[in-house]
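If you are new to this repository, start here. Below is one unmodified record pulled from the training split, so you can see the exact layout before writing a loader.
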Amino acid sequence: MSTTQTQSAEQGSHSNYRRSLGTIALTATGLGSIIGSGWLFGAERAASIAGPAAILAWVIGAAVALTIALTYTELGSMFPKAGGMVRYGQYSHGSLAGYLAAWANWIAIVSVIPGEATASVQYMSSWDFGWAKALYDGKELTGTGVALASVLLIFYFFLNWFAISLFAKTNTAITIFKVVVPVLTASALMLAHFDTANIKEHGGFTPNGWSAVFSAVALSGIVWAYNGFQSPLNMAGEARNPGKSLPKAVIYSIVIALVIYVALQVAFLMAVPGGKLESAGGWAHLGYNSPLADLAIAWGLNWLALLLYADAFVSPSGTGMIYAATTSRMIHGVQENGHLPKIFGRVDKKTGVPRPALILNLFIAFLFLAVFRGWGSLAEIVSVATVISYITGPVAVMSLRRLAPDLKRPVKLKIMPVVAPIAMVFGSLVLYWGRWPLTGKVILIMAVGLPVWAWYELRKPWAELKPHLKAGAWMVAYLLVMACVSYMGGEEFGGKGYLPAGWDILVVAVIGLLFYVWGVRSSWRNPSLIQAEAESLAEAEAEAAGEPGADGAKSDAKCEAGTA
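And here is the target side for that same chain:
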């Protein structure tokens, strides 16, 4: 297929999307993704790993997410297309690195959908009914629980089936509720019981050491929660004015979520009864099935418990609905990268929804639900896979500044040459904090996706394939080296202890910087980038000529409130 034909086909499919989302709607999309099941379970899980120092884990997680998000906001404004997060590595490094990044990102996001359904059912198991208690056995969902979670998956699916306008209106309303309830929960628990002795006793502020704080960032659902920042980027094809609205939406959603999550963490730490901590032997063994609701009942806040049980459906369902939407756009992007059949690139002209991609993601969500039946196990897989997908942003943004300096950049930070390598180091550290053998298992999952890439790419002539392999070698080597470092690293991070404490952190930081340099230098002007440049030039010419739709961005401020 010629470049012209490909460009025409891609532009045609994207013309079926409706550019109707403004800053408020996109912020609601990001915030709605961040505040899902994480706020229901994250405070307890972070405390079980790090104790009261879990407060700092949320701050560190936000700093990591914000730093990495800044690299992606420039990329998102440059390429405002559906499924943006799966495209950037393809533009900068070609098919191998692009596919690995897309695979990691898709695995991380699509597995969130069954995770949200699992969270709702797990919370329901605390209801005082025999059938409800039979949904969850304390570790994972039972057969009945899986069946009920499957019904929720179908519900998320149908909410996205009809139209993007329905999604926007429904999501904004749900997000408002999802913000109000956590704020109300944190306030009510603090007023009901605020025992500062919990910070001083039972092991003190860091009962498991500072390494546990870092592990909490990677394993307790914190990375999972903040990963929602990318949802506005994946919906960029439907943004009215992506250059202005995308960066605002990403930054606003992370900052607002940070305030809410820290408040919830403080409320949880202070509300746990001292006797409960004493009998459990510390933070690691509290054993709540529905943490915040159980605490509300313990302090006589029955009205709050009922509200939390209701929100256990609303918050995860809102996030599940958003991720069902964004993952379908990601599948569309992977198809346009050349690694899925054409049917998954089809967008319904009437509704503006990529329906075949929705069906594929529903099927994969069912598979994840069947294999990983507990929220905790899904949170760990999602978090580590998410970090792997993060590393392409810092490398891609600086690579494209080198390869395509004249490409239009509605968002361009002067400090990006400093931010990008720091973001790469942060991503590498969080991956290491994920602990061996989990890091090794998720890196192995990355290899499982390679046969799909091979099916599409290895049939190409060697002269055409070689530059893609050469440009993607840094990412393959990075994953192998990080697996080895994780295995040999400190015992507090699950390793064999060959690297002394402190030195292991330094080694990982240096590795991140070295691979950042290699990644930027190995980028090349591949066909996907050349095509993207041609599309950008065509859009600029159309705007200059005053063609219909070219000035749609000018109406952003007028339409903002209506869309939201």
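Two things worth knowing about this chain: The domain at 38-533 is CATH 1.20.1740.10 (Amino acid/polyamine transporter I). The chain has one domain: 38-533.
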